[in-house]
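Late entry, magnesium ion complex.
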Amino acid sequence: MSPLTEDDGAQVARPSESRRDPSWLRERLDTWLKSHEGPGAQVTAVDIPSANGMSSETLLVSARVDGADHDLVARVAPMPDSDPVFGSYDLDGQYRLIRHVAEHTDVPVPRLWWSEPDPAPLGAPFFVMSRVDGDVPPDVMPYTFGSWVSEGTPEQQRRLMTESVGVLAKIHAAPLPSVGVPVVEPGEDPLRSHVRRLREFYRWASEGRAGAPLIERGFAWVDEHMPEPSEPVLCWGDARIGNIMYRDFTPVAVLDWEMATLGPRELDVAWMIFIHRFFQDITELAGMAGLPDFLTRDDVAAEYKRQTGHPPADLDFYTLYAALIHAVVMYRIQCRAIHFGQADEPADPDDMIMHRASVEAMMAGTYWSSVAERGES
Ligand SMILES: Nc1ncnc2c1ncn2[C@@H]1O[C@H](COP(=O)(O)OP(=O)(O)O)[C@@H](O)[C@H]1O
Ligand SMILES: [Mg+2]
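Prediction complete; structure with ligand written out below:
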């Protein structure tokens, strides 16, 4: 799920109150677990972490299976009546994709336990994985505002960058999966297919309301500047350091596979670069220095080339496209917040996009030169 969304009232917007009740969840999961693993199995505790994304829910589960205690995490699809951010979820597809990655690469992913596609037991499909011990760069407040990442030494921050780029390199070398990624229409280039799906998502999100002119100009820019098709790879999708757990600045678990797709490798490389810029820009606007030398476009691109032999191409295009994807998701989240009475409708719909100035500067071709002028490229 995208950054800076966790705090804007997701709980209030979730009508399915029983899903917020740990004892209800523990009972339901316990019944479910016994039916799978026999009467000796037991769910001993369920906790709902406070900082949750808005796409799926993450539950901390403790269970006894075959006489051993396990710390687990259940990822549960959103309830349809909660007006989910995305129209459809394929949680079992995510589970199978993670298994594909575990089988074919040495990308660290949590050990998988079960997938339950039937909504009956919990009200929505879910899967269960092992709980990994590690730290995630925080989104709220962003890690650039002050966190274990910003407190690291330059050497540790560099290790985090090279190892995180290494995660992308390994994912991109995986064989193409047949599960957990959207189907590309026969004869359609995967990038064009990705843009088509984003546009469909935007149309769905903006149906019956004022659209955002900036997003529409963004789509037109993307159509005009579309790069030549390239060989598709497995892309992680939400490829940002905020979806990786680290120990000692080294990845120990790669999470959040719901945006996975087949497409050009630059989709992931540019998303990693852009989301850091997004946080860095907010930090500078707040009058702080942030991490201007961390995860820079030049460093990420050079490191990706060093590890894969592929120099990322067309990064002006792909970073703008990343900013557009983020704009569409942010627009959708804001529409949802307005719908639930948690936000006021702005007079200018483009104001729903927190990074509108960056998108405008990218389209004008001035964004990266101004970053360079600040010595941050
Ligand atoms: N297997 C896991 N082990 C430990 N913590 C996890 C695990 N999966 C998720 N988490 C915690 O839940 C948070 C959200 O998980 P994530 O998969 O990124 O979902 P989303 O961002 O869609 O809510 C993570 O940042 C992490 O703190
Ligand atoms: Mg996440």
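The domain at 17-130 is CATH 3.30.200.20 (Phosphorylase Kinase; domain 1). Will revisit in the morning.
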